[in-house]
User: Which sequence fits this backbone?
């Protein structure tokens, strides 16, 4: 497949978005209007410029990455528009910003390669830690943290009592952490793999080798305790454990990480009411349907009502689902497009994940392998956590669905991740 | 490090595969269960926007109808033209508050979405008329309207029944509400109704059980007569108070005096004057199990078969057996006895129908769009509750109550009227005023039950004779004159 085929597929995604917006309008008893053209132009502009940047700075990159991203973004944009047209308008701006940052990232990496990131790895660690801590800034400050639904993950910029912009710095922090871990683990994986110290019958690496890892683990606990968010904390720890496993091949890291997190989650469940309610909603949604079980119940009703082929875009009632544009966007898509649509979305994620791990496997040096594997694992785990929550396979963790959910921070972070993946695949193929 | 990366990829893709399996299960296999779950608001949304058949009174007055929306050919808006007057029985189909009343129990018949069934497709192919069926009710508009006016803002309920058929002529529960505030997607008024301390959403005719007080003496008397323990002339002691065996409690009459002259008094006189002392003794003599058996023949301790769900009235015969003190108090309708107004109206109806209990019903027929009758409800005899002799004796005693006893306020010129008053003592509150009775002019008969909770406007002065009997008179007269 060539860059030309990629361009054709991207045009297809823009057409899909435009068709979707038109169908939503017609289903609502109106005629297609400027929204159709606007959405087509924004998707075409965003992915068109990314495509041109690929031709310029990542000409040999995998041609599958961008079309899959565009497909998911387009479907998300249409469903957000169907639920809340004004949110879709904002999301279009975020898409342009994400694409712009993607192009800029590619331009920087294009001149110096992904090795550049290795040089500044402790800067990335610092940036990651700062990003995660930013929401703890006092709410009263112009740039301060905000608590939303019991979790303190948001940073907002306020001037003269009006909120200008809200952002989840943790989304970008997650990206920085993956970049740091990739270069750190690549340089130390030999030391981490050799179990030289004996602790009773257990062998373990030299303690000083583990110090930076302890920082990363501490960050995820801080998120759990001070920001009280199960999802962000779980995502971070899972990505962390996945990368440690990829670097060392030792299952003890993910197992220990999982054990530590489980312990933390149980403690959080008893300590924080809103975490306990999430467990109740997951395990016993019908016991207290009117209260704790309401969200997940509405999600399951939406899935069941969607059935095989869905109600049709704009013809279902996803407006009954709480937080449909963010946490439950997948349920809204599944209701209106049915199993056909929901499986297509999951399949697109699976393809993206497969392509990402393919890049990791073909990379010739540990750093690029780990960076590609880490970025891919982050997208995969985030997708699994939120879709799993929406379909009650896992407790609901309230994180966004990559590329699809309404929200700027996640879109920017994931777009940059895809661009970095693309650049790695270019360097691997060149 | 390719091996761990490959394993990692395999695990994550396997979990995505698991998600695909679970999605297939949720959307296709378990899908219909979730789709049709009553808590799924889409069910109500469908019902509240599709065409549904009309509900009309016996005279044809429209109580519920669907009109097509102006902006869409497919959706309809349900409206309830008589508003609060029939709110409880007719019920509602709403988006946000579910459904209730006949709108709920007859949802299947009223809805038009039968077009995907095999018979629906065949009907369509044969060009048969499709669409929503309507239902006609046995309600009489003047009777229902009179019930509303007579209760006049007091908390309580009125039930009127045609005794020989079981047709329900009126079911009015006060306070009522306007169902239109529950309709639509924003339905602002609904939450207020749900938390209103006066519980306007509750159908007090069938969904609330109260102590019946002295109206229960009809059943106690029936039990004594049925068992052959007494006839209307049987003489009883007439004490100032009835000492309850094994207890320090006593039973007194409402006026704290004796029933008659303080020597001996007959059953009919005790019934006419509603003497607690005598009926407490009759309860002890008759025994809880015998009273329970007769109460159950009238419908107590079981769900009454009806077009709407009825709360079971209770007379706990087994737990009262061997406790004469509690039996005496229960025999005068206090303590452990609780009844719905519908149940008490059926008691009066049985007396007026020579002892036979008819199945009460409110839906008389189903009709199609062209008003062709599709099905009719026929009167159904549930069982003989009491012998014709007992019924005749009770009827005479009840007529005495209205002619010269506690129920004189229920007299209707040129009509045969019988009844029984009740003033149920409620600890810490004003008494409930009850009246059950019947009235007949030529071939027109009606049985009623009226309850005004906590004395209504009369407060602690309230008695069944003063508060409930005039309401019953107005309601019965409305049917006799209609």
Assistant:
């Amino acid at each position: 497949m060539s860059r030309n085929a990629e361009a054709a597929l991207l045009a297809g995604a823009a057409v899909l978005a435009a068709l979707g917006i038109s169908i939503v309008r017609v289903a609502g008893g109106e005629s297609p209007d400027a929204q159709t053209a606007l959405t087509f132009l924004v998707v075409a502009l965003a992915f068109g410029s990314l495509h041109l940047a690929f031709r310029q700075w990542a000409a040999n990159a995998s041609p599958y990455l961008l079309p899959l991203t565009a497909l998911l973004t387009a479907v998300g944009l249409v469903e957000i528009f169907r639920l809340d047209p004004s949110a879709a308008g904002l999301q279009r701006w975020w898409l342009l910003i994400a694409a712009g940052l993607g192009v800029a990232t590619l331009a920087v990496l294009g001149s110096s390669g992904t090795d550049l990131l290795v040089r500044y790895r402790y800067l990335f660690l610092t940036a990651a830690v700062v990003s995660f801590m930013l929401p703890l800034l006092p709410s009263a400050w112009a740039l301060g943290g905000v608590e939303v639904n019991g979790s303190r993950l948001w940073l907002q910029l306020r001037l003269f009592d009006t909120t200008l912009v809200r952002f989840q710095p943790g989304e970008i922090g997650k990206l920085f952490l993956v970049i740091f871990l990739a270069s750190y683990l690549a340089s130390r994986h030999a030391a981490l793999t050799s179990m030289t110290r004996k602790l009773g019958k257990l062998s373990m690496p030299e303690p000083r080798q583990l110090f930076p890892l302890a920082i990363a683990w501490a960050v995820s606990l801080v998120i759990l305790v001070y920001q009280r968010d199960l999802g962000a904390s779980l995502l971070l720890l899972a990505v962390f454990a996945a990368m440690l496993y990829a670097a060392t091949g030792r299952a003890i890291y993910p197992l220990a990480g999982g054990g530590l997190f489980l312990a933390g989650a149980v403690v959080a469940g008893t300590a924080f009411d809103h975490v306990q309610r999430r467990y109740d909603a997951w395990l016993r949604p019908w016991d207290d349907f009117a209260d704790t079980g309401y969200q997940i119940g509405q999600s399951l009703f939406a899935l069941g009502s969607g059935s095989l082929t869905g109600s049709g875009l704009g013809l279902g009632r996803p407006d009954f689902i709480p937080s449909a544009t963010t946490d439950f966007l997948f349920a809204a898509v599944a209701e209106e497009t049915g199993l056909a649509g929901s499986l297509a979305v999951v399949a697109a994620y699976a393809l993206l994940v497969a392509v990402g791990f393919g890049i990791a496997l073909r990379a010739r040096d540990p750093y690029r392998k780990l960076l590609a594997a880490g970025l891919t694992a982050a997208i995969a785990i985030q997708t699994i956590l939120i879709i799993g929550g929406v379909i009650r396979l896992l407790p609901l963790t309230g994180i966004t669905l990559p590329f699809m959910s309404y929200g700027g921070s996640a879109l920017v972070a994931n777009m940059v991740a895809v661009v970095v993946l693309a650049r790695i695949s270019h360097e691997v193929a060149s | 490090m390719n091996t761990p990366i490959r394993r990692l990829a395999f695990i994550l893709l396997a979990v995505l595969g698991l998600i695909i399996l679970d999605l297939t299960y949720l959307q296709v296999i378990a899908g219909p269960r979730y789709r049709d779950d009553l808590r799924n608001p889409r069910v109500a949304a469908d019902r509240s926007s599709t065409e549904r058949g009309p509900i009309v009174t016996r005279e044809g007055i429209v109580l519920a109808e669907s009109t097509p929306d102006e902006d869409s050919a497919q959706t309809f808006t349900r409206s309830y033209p008589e508003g609060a007057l029939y709110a409880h029985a007719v019920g509602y189909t709403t988006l946000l508050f579910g459904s209730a009343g006949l709108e709920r129990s007859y949802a299947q018949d009223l809805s038009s979405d039968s077009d995907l069934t095999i018979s629906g497709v065949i009907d369509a192919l044969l060009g048969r008329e499709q669409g929503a069926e309507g239902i006609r009710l046995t309600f009489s508009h003047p009777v229902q309207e009179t019930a509303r006016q007579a209760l006049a803002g007091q908390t309580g309920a009125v039930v009127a029944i045609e005794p020989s058929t079981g047709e329900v002529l009126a079911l009015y529960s006060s306070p009522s509400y306007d169902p239109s505030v529950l309709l639509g997607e924003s339905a602002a008024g609904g939450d207020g109704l749900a938390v209103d301390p006066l519980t306007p959403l509750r159908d007090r005719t069938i969904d609330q059980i109260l102590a019946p007080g002295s109206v229960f003496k009809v059943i106690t008397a029936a039990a004594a007569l049925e068992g052959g323990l007494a006839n209307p002339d049987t003489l009883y002691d007439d004490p100032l108070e009835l000492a309850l065996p094994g207890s320090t409690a006593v039973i007194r009459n409402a006026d704290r005096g004796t029933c008659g002259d303080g020597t001996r008094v007959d059953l009919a006189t005790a019934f006419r004057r509603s003497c607690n002392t005598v009926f407490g003794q009759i309860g002890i003599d008759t025994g809880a199990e015998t009273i329970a058996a007769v109460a159950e023949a009238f419908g107590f301790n079981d769900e009454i078969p009806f077009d709407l769900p009825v709360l079971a009235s209770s007379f706990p015969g087994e737990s009262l057996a061997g406790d004469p003190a509690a039996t005496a108090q229960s025999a005068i309708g206090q303590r452990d006895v609780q009844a719905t107004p519908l149940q008490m109206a059926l008691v009066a109806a049985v007396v007026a129908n020579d002892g036979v209990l008819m199945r009460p019903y409110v839906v008389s027929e189903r009709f199609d769009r062209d008003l062709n009758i599709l099905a009719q409800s026929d009167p159904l005899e549930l069982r003989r509750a009491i012998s014709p002799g007992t019924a005749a004796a009770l009827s005479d005693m009840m007529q005495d109550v209205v002619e010269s006893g506690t129920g004189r306020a229920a007299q209707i010129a040129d009509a045969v009227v019988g009844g029984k008053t009740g003033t149920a003592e409620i600890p810490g509150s004003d008494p409930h005023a009850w009246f059950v009775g019947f009235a007949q002019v030529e071939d027109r008969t009606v049985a009623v039950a009226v309850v005004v909770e906590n004395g209504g406007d009369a407060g602690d002065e309230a008695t069944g004779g003063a508060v409930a009997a005039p309401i019953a008179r107005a309601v019965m007269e409305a049917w006799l004159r209609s």
